[in-house]
Structure formats: structure tokens, C-alpha cells
Amino acid sequence: MSPGGSAADWWGLLVSGGDVWACVLELNTWRRARQDRPLASYQELCRELAASGAGCFGELDTVGARSVLRRYSDAWFAAAQRRRSGDQRARFPRRRRALMPLRWYHGTFTLTGRRLRIPVARGRPPLWVRLNRDLPYPPEQVRSVTLVYDAGRLWVDVTAEIPVTAYPAGHEPDPGRTAGVDLGIIHPYAVAGPGGQGLLVSGRAIRAEHRMHLADTKARARAVARRAPKPGQRGSRRWRHYRRRQRLVEARHRRRVRQAQHEAAKTVIAWAVDRRIGTLAVGDPRSVLSLDAGRRHNQRTRDWRIGHLITVLKDKAEAAGIGLTLVDERGTSSTCPACHSRIPKPPGRVLTCPACQFTGHRDLTAAASIAARHGGGITPVIPAGVTHRRAGAHLPGVSSSRRDPRRRAHYRGARGSPGRHRPIPASPTRLARESLATWRGA
Length: 442
Ligand SMILES: [Zn+2]
Fold this sequence. Notes:
Layout: H1 7-33, H2 42-51, H3 62-84, E1 102-105, E2 110-112, E3 115-118, E4 127-130, E5 142-150, E6 153-160, E7 174-183, E8 189-192, E9 198-202, H4 204-224, H5 237-274, E10 277-284, H6 295-304, H7 306-320, E11 323-328, E12 350-352, E13 359-361, H8 362-373, E14 386-390, H9 427-441
This protein binds zinc ion.
């Protein structure tokens, strides 16, 4: 949600947040130089902030400043935890930032309609901000607001506490009814439920969005490569314009994919609620994702955003009163559910067992196997019971009415585009050209 209101005030607050962050970094640099223990716990940092006195960070109030300390503390302990568990690449926070996100908790801000009141340092007039759309939650459910600057826009990030859905008697999810969920790229979610029922959410639009974005980014980079500043040089105005534009495009791409994944997860939950499914067994493929699979496939798995797919499904399941468990999915898409023999990965979507002639949809069969692993005795999905849905119906290019402006025209000779086949205009044109040449030469 992007706020209206005076940009200079917002900007000043976020810059002050960046100053707090820089102070903490500097403090710990000194302490390290003196071979002292770094200050990382939230309480210690708050004490240090109180000692430095009020009003030393511009308009920023104590609550906002403390949210920066909380962020530092969380990042520090997360890095320490990862280093203890043997990950030597984990780094403690040490980069300065010009702008820092700020958070205010329930009771410190006021929300009335589209107006948000942010507390500022004592003696300054409070900051009122107009939001450009309505909150999706009642104001009393909002637990915190966070001010973020991302790619040319100021955002208010809202956290709300949502009660678990209440169902009329006889319609609540039944924990005994299990559905298996297979996560994929072509189908972000393939779900197999009891009674041969299945759901396929198509992710082709999301994949197209990733591909278009990659092609677009590459083309941009090629076009401006010769303008790139040398090390130590300040970029030209055109270069900085390019960098800004690229940041905006990246942010828009991320928003589009995130939105599409949220919609896909919502579809799954709505489908599960309709069928009174109380447990979702989700196959977790993350154990094999760290393996290097070549640059193209690595790009695919990075674009997949599997962690986000699992998180959004988990959150929505929780809100709907559905349990979710992660199951190791290894081998589920390559094992026959009927005779348990190993099946080579088919190139398409149809899985056929060479041993027992079993045939079924590859992702739905995997989903059924995942459910079986969790103890849900699910027979493979029958084609008649499959519901098809699409993720990312809002993405550009999903229909002919919304052409993706990044897509190149299908004109003859366009690179990478075969275009429509047209026979080459034969001799008349060539003759005409020749005669023209002769006429000119004469
Ligand atoms: Zn078989």
C-alpha cells in the first residue's frame, strides 16, 4: 500500500532509520577494535539508545528507532545461529543503508479509514498519512505497520491478526480427510484428495512472466553495457536512469509473481474447504534444490520460489483451520503408485508405468503418492474429478486482449520468432528492383 502525504517527511524518517542502523554498526566496529564483545541483544541496544538521549535522530521517535535495533538484533542472531551450525558464508550485518524500514506496533499508531497517524519525536507535529486504498482488514485487527521504501515507492506494510474461519456445523474441515499436494513449476500446486478428486493449478503464466522478465533484463543490459561506469566513476545520467528503471521493473516483476502465487494458494484452500479436507500433506522438494543442475535448471528452480509457495499455503491453511504437514517427496514423481516400480521421468505430463500399464497425470499421481506417505490412503485421481485453475490470470500476455509489451513483434525476420509463414514474393518485385536500377544507372 503506497502512502500519500508529504514525501519529504517520510523520507526524513527513513533516513533517520538508516542513521540509527549506521550508529549500531559503528558502535560494534569500535567494540571489535577494542576486542570487546559486540552489542547485539535488543535490550542492550535499547539501553544504548536511551543513553544517547532523545531527539538525536531527527524526527524519529523511540518506537521507530527501536524497530531498527530489533532488526539489527534479529539479523545478528540469525547469522550467529547459521555460523554455529557450520555455515561459514553467513555474515553479520555490516552494510550501511541510506533508508531503513521502520515499524510501529499496536497502540503507537492510529488508523482511521485511510488515514494513518505515525508518532514522531516529542515536540514535533505528528505525521498523518493518506493511504491510497482501503485496508483489507478491520483496523482493530492490525498489529503493526511498517514503512518501507522499495523501487521508487513508499509502502505501508500491514500485519494483522486474523481469526481462524468459523464454519457452520457439518461444514468444518475434517482432520481425517487428507489431500496430497505436489509442488511444481508447470503446476505450482497439484492436489489429490479423497474420492479420485484432484486440482491442477496451472503456472504457465508465471513461467512466461519469468521468461519475459529474463529476456527483457538481458536485452536492457546488452543495450547499456557500453555506458557502464568504470570502477570509481560516477555513472552517467543515462546510466542512472537505466538503473532506476531496472529497479522498478524488478519490483513490478516480484509483485506480479508474488500476487499470482498468493492467488494460486487461495484456489487450493478454497478447493480444500469445499471438500472438507482437514489435512494437507505437502511434498517438500527443498532437500534436492541445493544441487547444481546446470545454469538453465538452476535459474528455473530459483524462479520457482518454493519457500514462498509453501509459506503462503501454510498461512492460508492456518487461517482456514486446515492442518499442513511437510512430507519428504523424494521419488514420488518417479514411482508407480500401483506396483511401486521406478518409472523414468516422462517428457510430458502423462505418466505411464512400463511394468503394469498404469497411466495417470504425472503431478496428480505424485500428489496421491505424497498423501499415501502421510497415511491418507488415496487412490490416484480419476480424470473426471480434476478441477483446472490458472494462476496469474492478471499477468500481461495471458490472453490476446492483454498483449505483453515486452514480447517482440511477430514480424518477419524478428529474432527468435518464426512469425507467420508467408511465401516469398517472387519475381515481379525483383524484376521491378532490377528495372529501377537499370533506369537509375542509365
Ligand atoms: Zn506400475
